[in-house]
């Protein structure tokens, strides 16, 4: 069994790799034999993580800045695995969402993914590589007061299918749609919006998923590993939920 889901000899680039699900993916991909490239704006965390993982490198870049993305890929000769994971959240219904915040979410979650994929594509076509995009249940169903976030994750689902349709034999492209996962992203949300009632809201977040708890970053990372591995050779254009039963209810 040890030989399943291996990435030996492969180069895997993870955006938002310095924290949360991205960090877990960097650890899991490295343990599976990949050389990991950690793309993030957080230099300190990215470099600290790179220092822990054999052969890993931190590439500091803002995925919304085309020139920075271009430079990141200009230095690469080969790439087999891309995990478009970086993303940000926002709470609010349409009336509570200022245009500036809406645009910010679109820039990171949609345009950032577009830019990274655009510059990665020649390398991935050359290697017959794989892309995993980070969606969310918010891209599949409505989630109360997540207007902008749902819009951007819906776009991630659509971009996944579109890429799979446009490049069916050259690359594989899939999308992961997690429910709520216990990461700094959730902690920041609790701190910002529910500072004085964290325990209560955390319990509500647990209850929102029929399984009764949040997902763990490692659980999402292992799905990303499977989708990036040779064993998933027939899987493309798929949108995979991993949400403790949330969207089944
Ligand atoms: N945590 C959840 O409950 C959850 C659920 C579903 C989907 N997701 C998605 O998973 C992804 C990762 O979430 P997380 O919870 O691990 O978040 P996180 O906040 O712990 O990590 C996100 C990382 O992305 C980096 N990043 C943000 N903007 C960037 C930019 N412009 N350029 C480069 N790097 C940037 C951050 O510095 C950070 O290291 C996001 O796309 C998020 O929408 C999270």
Task: Please provide a written account of the structure.
This protein is of the alpha/beta class and 249 residues long. It has one domain: NAD(P)-binding Rossmann-like Domain (Rossmann fold), CATH 3.40.50.720. It is built from eight helices and seven strands; from the N terminus they run E-H-E-H-E-H-E-H-E-H-E-H-H-H-E. It has helices at 20-31, 43-52, 66-74, 99-127, 147-166, 184-193, 198-208, 217-228; strands at residues 11-15, 35-40, 57-60, 81-84, 130-134, 172-178, 239-242. The radius of gyration is 17 Å and the shape is globular. The protein starts with 10 loop residues before the first strand and ends in a 7-residue tail after the last strand. Residues 15-16, 18-22, 40-42, 62-64, 85-89, 108, 112, 134, 136, 178, 180-181, 183-186 line the site of nicotinamide-adenine-dinucleotide.
